[in-house]
Amino acid sequence: MLANLLISLFLLLIWSHSPTSAFSVQLIHRAALFPNDSTHLIDRLSAHTRVALARSHRFGRIPPSAIDAPITPHYAEHFMRFSIGTPPVSVLAVMDTGSDLTWLRCTPCADCFGRDVHVFHPTASSTYETLPCDSEPCKLLEPDACSRSQNCSYQYGYGDGSFTTGVISTETLTFDSTEGKQVSIPHVAFGCGHNNSRSFDAEMFGLAGLGGQSISLVSQLGPLAGGRFSYCLTPFRDNTSTSFMNFGGDAVIHGENVVTTALVEGGDKTFYFVTLQGVSVGNQRINANAGRGGNMFIDSGTTVSLVENSVWKRMGDLISEAVGLPHRLDPGGTFMCYEAGGLRERFPDITFHFAGGADVVLKPTNAFTEPTAEGTVCLAMQATNGTGIMGNLAQHNFHIGYDLVGRKVAFKPTDCSSHLGVLS
Questions:
Q1: Does residue 230 sit in the same domain as residue 332?
Q2: Distances (CA, A) of 251 to 70, 142, 246, 351, 424
Q3: Both 164 and 277 in a single domain?
Q4: Could you report the per-residue pLDDT of 375-421, keeping only the tens digit for each?
Q5: Number of neighbours of residue 238 by Cβ within 10 angstroms
Q6: Listed residue (173, 261, 153, 271) closest to 222, CA to CA
Q7: Do 359 and 398 fall within a single domain?
Q8: Which of 61, 84, 253, 331 has the fewest CB atoms within 10 Å around its CB?
Q9: What is the pLDDT of residues 33-71, one digit of tens each?
Q10: pLDDT number for residue 122
Q11: Domain boundaries, position 369
Q12: Span 355-378, average pLDDT
């Protein structure tokens, strides 16, 4: 705990007193990687149900000897492209603001036999190094984990039972900026995964952790990012457009219609907590139980949004009033659905009212599923008795900027598909 605090203070001092660079990287949409995937959105959302709730309820109940990040990376929607090693090898990793460790599938690879997968070969790189057990990243992640060779080993589990295990190492990461320049960062700590669940997509190398801990990728970028990053995610079915992630000065959001709310310190420093004060269906507001604040976190690695149970139930009734239709639960008993004749546009806007007057208006495409073949439309939110989550479906077509020094997050409605470079 003390080591983590000292590293966090050190990073804050660096960010506050160092010149900030700026660069942007490409995010690849899942639909571009899996063009033949015909799985309907409601089916994909149902697959997220258990893991989303696991993440919502996780706080305060994690055994100290285990790392737990209950998401499902193989259902992820956006992948970050960068290169690793010397010479550099291009990789695709799931972008996730709800976890800290960046890990890649490495050789020797126990889960690679009998199938064609993307994998990093550390022995082919002149800059690859394993970390010893007494290194600071190892102490933060696995304080008691040592391999027979005295390298730092790790085990990372997910809420659906999938996992990655391997050794904590360092490498040079290179980003091909959308501005035409390359940005290289040496000695970045990451997990070299030698045994990983076979359920992970073969096209993905691993996961890019963008959480708030000092081991995360955004923290290790240090002065290059200055504690700032932003992204703008294109919708699910838009497989022709490219999303971007900005770091440093390019991540500062300007212009009209920008709203800002405070990032709240929570029990788990991985997550970006905000305070949800209420939810509106159309112009009818439902107050949330904000407590002392920090009752929701923003998560790019979770698709659905989660709101407190009483708010969710009232939302269903108000939506029924607005569209003149009764609601029923989907076959999995998770989502409130409406026989809408295939017209998602008839549904009202949903507004998240965050502290500080930051009202984020979710259009029907952010808050409801696309119609099924039978014309059914469902509210893409779940009920929880735990911590709320603003999932990535609600984040589509918003430019969202995180300022980890100023402790705030900004939202700006944006047509993400119309931007081919830096957003502001």
A1: no
A2: 27, 32, 5, 24, 7
A3: no
A4: 899 999 999 998 999 999 999 999 999 999 999 999 999 998 876 55
A5: 17
A6: 173
A7: yes
A8: 61
A9: 766 655 555 555 555 555 555 555 454 333 323 333 333
A10: 97
A11: 255-415
A12: 93
Q: Do 87 and 224 fall into the same domain?
A: yes
Among candidate residues 176, 299, 330, 403, the one labeled active-site is 299
Q: What is the dihedral of CA 155, 389, 398, 355, to 10 degrees?
A: -130
SS (H, E, C) 24-39: EEEEEEHHHHCCCCCC
- Please indicate, yes or no, whether residues 235 and 274 belong to a single structural domain of this protein: no
Per-residue model confidence (pLDDT) at position 145: 65
Same domain, 282 and 366: yes
Of the residues 227, 248, 269, the one at which a domain ends: 248
Indicate the SS3 state at residue 158: coil
Task: Mark whether 317 is an active-site residue.
Answer: no
CATH number of the domain within which 398 lies: 2.40.70.10
CA-based nearest residue to 192, from 230, 151, 145: 151
Task: Look up residue 366 and give its amino acid.
Answer: N
> What are the C-alpha distances in Å from 7 to residues 2, 10, 150, 192, 279?
9, 5, 23, 23, 37
pTM (two decimals): 0.85
Phi, psi of 421 (to 5 degrees): -165, -140
DSSP, res 115: S
Cα angle value 415/416/418 (rounded, 5°): 75
Closest CA to 101 of 68, 72, 65: 68
Q: Could you tell me which residues are beta bridge partners of residue 168?
A: 191
Strands across the sheet containing 381-384? 272-274, 296-298, 388-390, 305-308, 381-384
**For residues 138 and 153, what is the distance between their CA atoms, to the nearest angstrom?**
8
Which of 96, 100, 201, 250 is an active site residue? Answer: 96
List the structure tokens of 176. Answer: 């091909």
Number of domains in the chain: 2
> For residue 421, is it within any domain?
no
Q: How confident is the model at residue 258 (pLDDT cuts 50, 70, 90)?
A: very high
Last residue of a domain, one of 198, 224, 248: 248
